[in-house]
Design a protein that fits this description.
- The relative contact order is 0.10.
- α1 (about 1-10) packs parallel to α3 and α4 crosses α5.
- The protein is mostly helical.
- It is globular, with a radius of gyration of 21 Å.
- It is built from 7 helices and no strands.
């Protein structure tokens, strides 16, 4: 938001583009924590309206005024002083977001390992040490990937192709097809939903395949001079 205000005031000239990252992979973990899972629809509607509005306005304003001069991350598009202020505000939220995603990944693995055992609901020694080991392993893997692919654009493209494409498009389509197996052609409503969800699945496949190809080419063409160094990965 600070960057949006600054670039709007300085008004560099350029074209517009938009980039959005989803949090759909967290949905199942959040539902699992609800006292009343049926309330999830209301919570989801509220958070989607708020985050879509905020991300859309911020992204459009920054990219409209910055255009081809925009950096990645976009926080560096602001002036020297405002850039420091923006990063000072953003760093805590970036850490919080990273902790949430790390927690979600570790919880998925933990639940699969200890499903239908006492370790799910009780703080046993096995559960405690397993949780510490899983969270540590997740963070180590994330650190290795981030250091190996230092360019923020390439890393974001790779992650989005591998995961965002499926959690946003592919898996919702697959889930509907699985839950309604044998009822796909019962009536016109189901036929329509079958076509929509089938299309969602193939859109996910296309985004994943093409995204992996394009991000792979970009990573291969990158000089790689910043891998495992303290050089800024902003482009």
């Amino acid at each position: 938001m600070v960057t949006m205000v600054d670039v709007g005031i300085e008004r560099p000239i350029g074209s517009a583009s938009l980039s959005v990252t989803p949090g759909h992979c967290c949905f199942f973990s959040f539902i699992d924590e609800f006292k009343n899972p049926s309330d999830w629809h209301k919570a989801l509607l509220l958070v989607q309206i708020c985050e879509t509005t905020l991300y859309l306005i911020t992204a459009v304003v920054i990219y409209y005024f910055s255009g081809p001069n925009v950096t990645s991350p976009a926080l560096d598009s602001a002036g020297p002083l405002v850039k420091k202020i923006a990063w000072g505000i953003a760093i805590p939220t970036i850490i919080i977001a990273g902790v949430i995603y790390g927690h979600v990944a570790a919880k998925y693995i933990f639940n699969r390992l200890f499903r239908d055992t006492e370790h799910i609901s009780k703080r046993t020694k096995t559960a405690t040490f397993s949780w510490i080991g899983l969270t540590g392993a997740v963070w180590i893997v994330a650190w290795i990937i981030a250091e190996s692919i230092p360019d923020f654009d390439n890393l974001l493209a790779l992650i989005s192709s591998l995961f965002a494409s499926w959690f946003t498009y592919g898996l919702p389509g697959v889930m509907w097809l699985f839950l309604n197996y044998g009822q796909w052609f019962w009536d016109w409503k189901n036929i329509t939903l079958f076509l929509i969800n089938g299309m969602l699945f193939w859109v996910g496949v296309a985004i994943c395949g093409l995204g992996l190809w394009s991000s792979g080419v970009a990573i291969a063409n990158d000089s790689g001079g910043g891998s495992w160094t303290c050089r800024s990965n902003a482009q």
